[in-house]
Write a structure and sequence with these properties.
Layout: E1 7-12, E2 25-30, E3 37-38, H1 47-57, E4 62-67, H2 91-101, H3 111-114, E5 124-125, E6 129-130, H4 148-156, H5 173-186, E7 191-192, E8 204-208, H6 210-216, H7 229-238, H8 252-267, H9 281-286
Parallel strand pairs: 1-4, 4-8, 7-8
Antiparallel strand pairs: 1-2, 2-3, 5-6
C-alpha cells in the first residue's frame, strides 16, 4: 500500500439532529508530506454535503477515514438484533434497513430508526429509556455490546463506547447510524474497506477512530482532544508532518480531522493494519473494522 494513495482525508462526523453541524470537519493532505489542511475552512457542513464531496469532489486517489462506526455488534450474539425476525444478515443489509426506516428523516438523520418499535429495544436512549435488549444475555460487556474491533481498540488503551449507546458526550451511536445512510449511498461507487477489497486504483473509505490517531501522535486516549495549535502541531510533529498554520480559533473537531488525515498518511503503508489478526471474512462482512485497530 506504500504508493497506493496520493491523498489522505479524514472526516470528523456528527449524528446530531439538524441540517448543519459544527461537529463535522473535513481535512486532507497529500502523499508528499505537506501539512494537512481543512476543506472549506469556516464552513458549517451538512451530512449531504459531505456525501457529495466524497462522491464528486474528493480526489480520485484518496484514502478517506470517517470517524464513525460502520456497523453494529454481530459476533457476540450471532446477529445485530437477536430475536428480531428482520435482523439483517450483513452490514450492507443493515445499511439498507436503516435507510428504509429513515427514508423520510431529513438531512440523513436516523431518528426514526432509534425510535422504531422493534429497533429501539436494543438501544440506550435519552431520558432513561434503555431498551430491554440493550444488555443482551450473550453480551460480554456491562457497558453494552461491542464489536470485535472495539475490543481491539480497548486492548490498545482506547475507551470505546457501544454503538447501541446513544447517551452521553462520548457516544457514537447516532454518528454511526447516520453514517450508515452515507455508506449505503457510497456502496458500489466507492470501495468501503473491509466490506470491499481494496481495488488497485480509485478512492477507498475506511472507518477511523480519531483517538488512535491522537495516540500515534504521542497523546493518551484521555487527552486525545485538542483545541490549540500548539497541541495539534506537537502531535503532527510526532507523525513527521509540518505544522498547521494558525488561521483563527481551532476547535477539537477540526483538530481531530487534521491530525487524523496526517496519521492516515503514515498508517496506510503499514500492511499489517490492512490485515489485523481478528479480521475474519465473517467479521469483514458483518461488523467491519476500525482502520488502525491492531
Amino acid at each position: 500500500m506504500a504508493d497506493r494513495f496520493a491523498h489522505f482525508a479524514a472526516i470528523d462526523w456528527s449524528g446530531a439532529v439538524g441540517e448543519r453541524h459544527k461537529g463535522i470537519a473535513v481535512a486532507i493532505c497529500e502523499a508528499g508530506g505537506d501539512a494537512p489542511r481543512l476543506v472549506r475552512p469556516g464552513h458549517r457542513w451538512s451530512r449531504p454535503e459531505v456525501l457529495e464531496w466524497l462522491l464528486q469532489e474528493m480526489p480520485a486517489g484518496t484514502l478517506a477515514g470517517l470517524d464513525l462506526g460502520a456497523s453494529l455488534p454481530f459476533a457476540d450474539c450471532g446477529a445485530f438484533f437477536p430475536g428480531w425476525a428482520d435482523s439483517p444478515p450483513d452490514a450492507r443489509s443493515l445499511w439498507a434497513l436503516v435507510e428504509e426506516i429513515c427514508r423520510d428523516d431529513p438531512h440523513l438523520a436516523a431518528s426514526s430508526f432509534v425510535d422504531h418499535e422493534q429497533a429501539s429495544r436494543y438501544f440506550r436512549r435519552h431520558g432513561g429509556r434503555e431498551g430491554a435488549l440493550f444488555h443482551h444475555r450473550d453480551a460480554a460487556h456491562r457497558q453494552g455490546r461491542f464489536r470485535v474491533t472495539e475490543q481491539a481498540q480497548a486492548a490498545m488503551g482506547c475507551k470505546p463506547y457501544s454503538n447501541f449507546n446513544l447517551v452521553g458526550a462520548a457516544q457514537v451511536g447516532k454518528s454511526s447510524l447516520t453514517g450508515m445512510r452515507v455508506l449505503h449511498r457510497l456502496a458500489g461507487q466507492v470501495a468501503i474497506w473491509p466490506f470491499d477489497p481494496v481495488p488497485p486504483r480509485g478512492p477507498v473509505v475506511v472507518e477511523i477512530y480519531t483517538a488512535i490517531a491522537a495516540m500515534a501522535g504521542g497523546r493518551t486516549a484521555a487527552r486525545s482532544k485538542m483545541n490549540s495549535y500548539a497541541d495539534l502541531n506537537e502531535a503532527l510533529a510526532v507523525l513527521g508532518s509540518p505544522p498547521v498554520r494558525e488561521t483563527g480559533p481551532l476547535d477539537d473537531h477540526s483538530a481531530d480531522a487534521l491530525l487524523a488525515a496526517a496519521w492516515l498518511r503514515t498508517a496506510a503503508p503499514r500492511e499489517e493494519l490492512w490485515r489485523p489478526n481478528a479480521l475474519t471474512p465473517q467479521i469483514a462482512r458483518t461488523e467491519g473494522w476500525t482502520f488502525g485497530a491492531a
